[in-house]
Amino acid sequence: MIPKSGNRFSDEIMVKHGDRAPYRFFPHGSGSISALVFAVGAVALWSTNALVGKSLLANHSVSQVQFLQFAGAALVFALIRFTSRESAPPVGARAALLPLAVGFIGLVGTMVLQYIAFASMPVIEANLVAYTWPLMVAAVVIIFENPRRPALLGLAATLGFIGVALVISGGRDRTWFQGDLVGYCAAFGSALCMAFYSVMVGRVATSPDRLLLPSSLIGVALTLAWCARDGVALPTGTDLALGLYLGAGPMGLGYYFWSRALKLEGSGKVAVVAYLTPIASTLLLTLSGERLTMTAVAGAVLVIGSCVAVGLERSEAENYV
C-alpha cells in the first residue's frame, strides 16, 4: 500500500508511478538544501536583469536585445545538454508536446512580454508587475494544496498584490500608469507565463536542459526574424557583451537553476524565494537613479510580509505532515 503524503499532487503522482515516483514534492534533507542553493543562485542572476536590460534598451530595440538574450541562453543550454550524461526516456510525439509547451510559455512567453513591458513603461514598475508571479504561485498553493490556514494565506497573497499596487502607484512621481496599456498588459502576461512555468516544471519528467534548449532555439529563430523585420543591426562591443550576459546569466543559468530547484523541492515552498528578486532588482534600479517614494517602500514591506507568511505556513504544514 502506498502511503499518503498529505499533498494531493504528490499523492496522485505516487499512485500513478508507485513507490518509484520520479519527482516527489517537498523532500527533506540534502534535496531541500540543494533546492535552496539553486533558487538563491537564480534570484541573484535575475536581480540584475532589469538594470542591464534598461541600459541596453536605452540605445537598442527590443528585438535586438531579445535576440542576444536567446542566443546566449541557447549556448548555455546546449553546453549543459552536451556535457550531461543523462539519457532521455523514450516518449511519444504527443507526450513530448507538454514539455515543449511548458518550456515555450515559460521561457519565450515570459521574456518577450517582459521586455516589451520594459520598453513601454518605467522599468521599475514593469519589473515589479512582472514579478507578481510568485503571488500567483502562492494562489495555486492555496487552491490546490489544501493548506492548513487557507484564509491566512489568501489574506497574505492579497496584501502582496496590494503592496505591488502601492509600488506601482508610488514608483515615480506619485502617479499611476505612466506607461501605455500595452506595457502593463505585457508585464502581467509575463507574470502569468512565469507562474505557469513554475507550477508545471516540477510536474514534467523532462530534465531542465532538455526542456529549455528547444524553446531557446525557437526564441533565437523568432527574434532573428523580428530583427530582420525591424531592419536593425546587432550591437557591438560592450553592448554585445551585456546582451549575451542577459542570455547566459539571467535567462540561461537563471532558468536552469530555478528549474532544478523546483524539481527538487516543488513549486509551493521554493517559489517564496522568488520574492527576493523584485526587492533586490528594485534596489539596484534605485541605486542607478530610479526614484522610489515612501509609498513604494510601504508596498515593498507588504510584499515582504506576504512572503514571510506564505513561507512560514509552508514550513509549518510540511512539519505537520
UniProtKB/TrEMBL annotation:
Pfam families: EamA (PF00892). Residues 34-168, 182-310 form the EamA domain. It is a multi-pass membrane protein. The chain crosses the membrane at residues 25-46, 66-83, 95-116, 128-144, 151-169, 181-199, 211-228, 240-258, 270-288, 294-312. Coiled coil: none annotated. It is found in: Cell membrane. Keywords: Cell membrane, Membrane, Transmembrane, Transmembrane helix. Its main location: membrane. This is DMT family transporter. It comes from Mesorhizobium opportunistum.
